[in-house]
Each structure stands twice: as C-alpha cells, then as structure tokens.
TrEMBL record:
It comes from Jeotgalibacillus proteolyticus. It comes from the Bacteria. Residues 8-134 form the SnoaL-like domain. This is SnoaL-like domain-containing protein. InterPro entries: NTF2-like_dom_sf, SnoaL-like.
Amino acid sequence: MNSGMNKVQDVLENYKSAIYERDVEKFISSYSDDVHIYDSWGHWEWKGISLWKDNVVEWFNGLKEEGYLLKVEFTDVTIEENNDLAFVHCAVTFAGYTEQSGEKSRQMTNRFTFGLKKQNDSWLISHEHSSLPINMDTGKGMFDLR
C-alpha cells in the first residue's frame, strides 16, 4: 500500500488524509515495521508496527465513537533528505470537527520530528517524536501556543 510514497511530502499527505478518513491501514502504510515512536500521549514509547497499529486503532475508534473528524495541518515544515534517509521537523495542528455539524470543537498543535528511510523506492517513517512545551509552574503541556 505504500508504493505511492516516492516523495517525503507524499508521506505527509498520506498522514493527513488517513487521519481524516480514520483509515488505519492507510495510516500504518506510512510506517516501517521497526518504527520507534515517542508520543505525547500516555506512553513513553512505541516500538514496532504492531504495537503502534493497536494504538492507532484505539485512537481512530475513539474519534469515530465521539463523532469527530480530525483535520491535520503541517506548518513550518523543514525537509532534509538524501538518497535513503530523510529528516522532517514541523508543527502539526490537529483540529477536531463534529462530523454531523462540521463545526470545529477543539484544536491542538504539537511539535513533530520524523525520521524516514527509503524501502523499495518508497519513504517510510522509521522514527517519530511528538512533543509539547511544558509550563514550568503547572507541569502541564502547553497546547495553545500556536
């Protein structure tokens, strides 16, 4: 399924559309089998595609149950690549829209870094790191800086 991601930008576009469509297989197709993820939500890390897929299934099912569609926007994107490795850092905004009304109900922006490798002429995410700045007074993540 990942054979169409010949450019790093294709991976970012697949990421966006798969989340909006809540399509687990499409989303997972952007990742290598040995992916290593540092996520901002509840776990220190995810190692391997099967554990990451379990998390994505839970995430997308939760969105469906709540009746939300997520629109993803990448800003401040920097892509550096050579023949087999690429590095991306950017801000990623997740905006939740109520499926029935189309009204935006929530939004947050994370900082993301992706490490990609080329396999069979297609780019795959092999490392992902999302983060938020922490308010030093409260110890809580700061979601509304952008």
